[in-house]
Amino acid sequence: RAAGQQVANTPTASLMTGASTQMSTVPDAALLRQRQQASASVSTRSIRSLYVGISGPLVTTGAMQSLNFAMYDSLRRGLHKRDRPTASKSDYLNNDALSNVAIASGVAGAITSIFTSPLMVVKTKQQVMVWSFRRTVQDTYRANGRGLSNFFVGFGPHLYCDIVGRLVYFTTYEATKRMFMEQRASSILGEPNSKDISVTIPERMFCAAVSGILSWSVIFPADSVRSRMYAHAVSSVGNTMSSLELAKKMYRDGGNSIRPFFRGFGVTVARAGPVAAFVLPVYDLTFEW
After folding, report:
1. How many separate domains does the chain show?
2. Does residue 128 sit within a domain?
3. In a 10 Å sphere around its CB, with 0-12 CB exposed, 13-18 middle and 19+ buried, how is residue 210 labelled?
4. Which key words are in the record (predicted)?
5. Does the residue 108 lie in any domain?
6. HSE of 173 in the Cβ direction (CA atoms, 13 Å)?
7. CATH number at residue 6
8. Alpha-carbon gap, residue 145 to 136, rounded angstroms
């Protein structure tokens, strides 16, 4: 499931990365030459270039998704058991507090961000430079003599995206699902909190699509800063800018406008809804089956 999701995601992610990094933040000649070479490569094999950066994530995305969902579910289950020690094992799926959902998803996102940050750095650099996975890893490690720290460039915005993004993603999904359940319970049984009411698959898909779109809408400006930091780090020359410095530069370069923070927003939102509409219902049904 996760591998298929990655294959579907990669072309639009490549387009979004290209859009969000369109305005170079590093005007040195070495980077300009590299970007010109990348552009020439993309123009000669455009379809293939949309899948640049897929090799690493394709291998690891299943493990990362599994880790995130497992931690989220374990934390959520534990928090519900603390609140209701006598409840059944599956009671948390529909009856735990939304605050528990928010805490569990945020903590799970924070922990997995440590592992996903290097993957994001490598993937984005591949998409910008159109390099192989191996060359990208080697170049990232050697750049500026900073070694492993290069794999955590932009970790501040990345941490924000993983914590807030996951928090909004899961909490919105659960909240909208329960809204459907309460509506149906009230109209059919006259009891808004009835446990005998379930959510249909189309309703789950709608709730998931809303949560995916809302999640990306909330984190997109930070994701733009993160992507621009990765693009800035492509150059092996020059000092790395902090996320705050880069955000200020993006604002100034955009004519004191927030438009640079939303470049590629349409592509991302168009992808977020359908992807979430597939992933979250499958997660739900796996536990309920």
Report:
1. 1
2. yes
3. middle
4. Membrane, Mitochondrion, Repeat, Transmembrane, Transmembrane helix, Transport
5. yes
6. 28
7. 1.50.40.10
8. 15
Amino acid at 239: N
- Cα dihedral 109, 195, 276, 66, rounded to 10, equals 50
Owning domain of residue 8: 2-167+227-272
Per-residue pLDDT of the chain (289 residues; tens, 9 = 90+): 444 444 445 455 555 555 444 444 444 444 445 455 545 544 444 555 555 555 555 666 678 888 999 999 999 999 999 999 999 888 998 889 999 999 999 999 999 999 999 988 888 888 777 788 888 888 888 877 778 888 998 999 999 999 999 999 999 999 999 999 888 888 776 666 656 678 899 999 999 999 999 999 999 999 999 988 887 777 545 567 889 999 999 999 999 999 999 999 999 999 999 999 999 999 888 877 7
Q: Are 262 and 221 in contact, with CB atoms under 8 Å apart?
A: yes
What Å distances lie between residue 18 and 49, 55, 169, 180, 181, CA to CA?
Answer: 11, 18, 25, 38, 41
Distance, in Å, from the CA atom of 202 to the CA atom of 180, rounded to the nearest integer, reads 11
C-alpha span between 221 and 286 (Å, rounded): 33
Q: Which are the contacts of 133, defined by CB distance < 8 A and separation ≥ 6?
A: 53, 55, 56, 122, 126
Cα distance between residue 79 and residue 166, in whole Å: 17
pTM for the full predicted model:
0.79
Do the domain assignments include residue 280? no
Token look-up 């984190």 returns: 219
